[in-house]
Amino acid sequence: MKTPLSWLKDFVDLEGINLEELAHTLTVAGLEVEEIHYIGLPMPSGLQQTKVSGLSWDPEKLVVAEIRDVGPHPNADRLVLCRLYDGQQEHTVLTGAPNLFEYRGQGELKPPLKVAYAKEGAEIYDGHQDGMHKTVLKRTKIRGVDSYSMVCSAKELGISEEHEGIIFLPADTKAGTPLADVLGDAVLTIAITPNIARDANIYGVAREISALTGRKLKPMPTAVKAAGPSIKGKVRIDIQDKELNPRFVLGLIKDVEIKPSPAWVQQRLRLAGMRPINNIVDATNYAMLELGEPLHAFDYDVLVQRAGGKAPTIITRPAKQGETITTLDGVERKLDDFTVLVCDTAGSLSIGGIMGGLESEVTENTRNVLLEGASWNFINVRKTLVAQRMSSEAAYRFSRGVHPAMAPRGVSRGLELMRQWAGGVVNEGLVDKYPKPAKDLQIEISSADARRWLGVALTNKQIGDILKKLGFTIATQGKSLLVTVPDHRMDIETGVVGKADLMEEVARIYGYDNIPATRLADPLPPQHGNPPLELEERVKDLLARMGIQEVMTYRLTSPEEEARRLPPGTPPDDKPYVKLANVISQERTVLRKSLLASVLEIAERNARQRQRIALFEVGPVFHSSEETLPDELQRLVVVLGGQQQPAGWQAGDAAAYDFYAAKGVVAELLAGLGLHGLKYEPGAHPSFHPGKCARVVVGERQLAVFGELHPQVHSQYDLGSHTLQAITLNLDVLGELVPERFDSRPVPQYPPVIEDLALVVDESLPAGQVEAMIAQTGGNLLAGVALFDVFRGDKIGAGKKSLAYQLTYQHPERTLTDDEVAKLRDRIVRRITQELGAQLRA
Amino acid sequence: MENLQAIREQALAALNAVQDEVALEQWKVAQLGRNAALTQAMKNLGQLSAEERPLAGKQANEVKLALEAAFEEKRAALEGARLRASLSSEKLDVTLPGRSLALGRLHPITQTLRRINAIFAQMGFQVYRSRDVETDEYNFLLLNFPPNHPAREMQDSFYVEGGAPDNPTLLRTHTSAGQIHAMREYAAKDPKNPPPIRIVLPGMCYRFEQVSARSEVQFTQVEGLAVGENITFGDLKGTLTDFAQRFFNANVRTRFRASHFPFTEPSAEMDVECFVCGGAGCSVCKHSGWLEILGSGMVHPNVLRNGGYDPEKYSGFAFGMGPERLTMLRYRIEDIRYFWRNDMRFLEQF
Question: Fewer beta carbons below 10 Å: N end or C end of chain A?
Answer without folding.
Answer: C
